[in-house]
Design a protein that fits this description.
about 400 residues; alpha+beta; single chain; four-stranded antiparallel beta sheet; 8 strands; Endonuclease I-creI; elongated; 2 domains
Length: about 400
Amino acid sequence: MTLDNLVSREELNKIGNPAQIDKYLLEAFGLADSELDKIRAQKSVLEALLIAGNIIKRRLEEKYGPEVNISAQFTRDNLSILTGHPGYKISGAMIKSFGKRKKALEGQTGLRMPTIQLFREEIGVYNGNLYDAKQKWKKLQASSTDWLVSTRIPTEIDFELAYLVGIIFADGNIHERGLQIVGKEIDYDFYKGIVQPLIQKMFNERTTLTDKVSHPNSLLETHSPAVLLSSRAVETFLKYHFGFPEKKEDYALPKLGTSEQKTGLFCGILAGMGAISGESLTISDTNSRFANSVRKLAVEVGYNPSLCHTHDSGLQLRFKEGDKEKLYTNNHLLHPKFYSNPNALRYARRKIKNKKEKKIKKKRKFILSYSTILLYLIQKHSYLMSLVEMHLMFSNN
């Protein structure tokens, strides 16, 4: 988890009074008066920065624990306020101390980075993996924000990552502010309980769930869950290594190698695009190349859906009775909509009623939200299936 910036520039501007500002800083960072005095007493800007950095690191780790990412607190603004030195002096001291090392690292890795990143590494608060990720994924790029929040990029493609990539191909698009993933009205719990925690787990990125309104104040008004992921590293990772398009015009699913990867991708597509209507389980899209790539993936995973044209010039994959039963039996429908929908298929109802009921009820008193479920369930496929089942068990009680 990344700790949001503890100091608000807007709040500081409101306070104005220097003594009150110091009190605000002491409370925000958990510092003692003597520690702030020690920082301010240093004549050397670099020495003041190093002392401030180490004190802040120690205090925040004591308060939040070492597993919380605190690197976002180490900004030029925060350091300027704490040390009493203006921003240009902070920048000058860092360039003088870390400029050569930064240039060498950029030459070695091919990644551009702000000079303050070297300071964060010196203090020991950076816990991203962009250096390792760049070695694995050669076209990866990163922004200053990626370094600030310690963005992580997986170096191996497992079931969970492939599943998340499938959801992104189904629901995502490149927005002017980053990668935007937008679901349907029935997806709010799914986004909050599965999509957001998976993004956090895969990329070390915290996201905010917002309500996207279409056709406001009309009979066609709809509300959809939306997640914005503003990460240059994640965006280039998806673009260059999975073929995620900047515009969804003529595109196809990526070709993955292992059975586990293909199954994860297929489950993600189903979670994002699959629908139940009456007795039918379908995937619909208007892009012919994409729809054909989804059908090809389904065949590779062990299914044989038919591909039909729809009345609105789109394409629809329809799963036959035998395939529908296999989808439930194989736990490939990793979204509560396939189980809680009143029209859900009969095998789904049997599954909800019988599987793991006692085990789930025992854990119920400890579980406050989807996010806490992640503490219990960290195994690949069973982890995701259990999230779905727990949601259903609780919603039906």
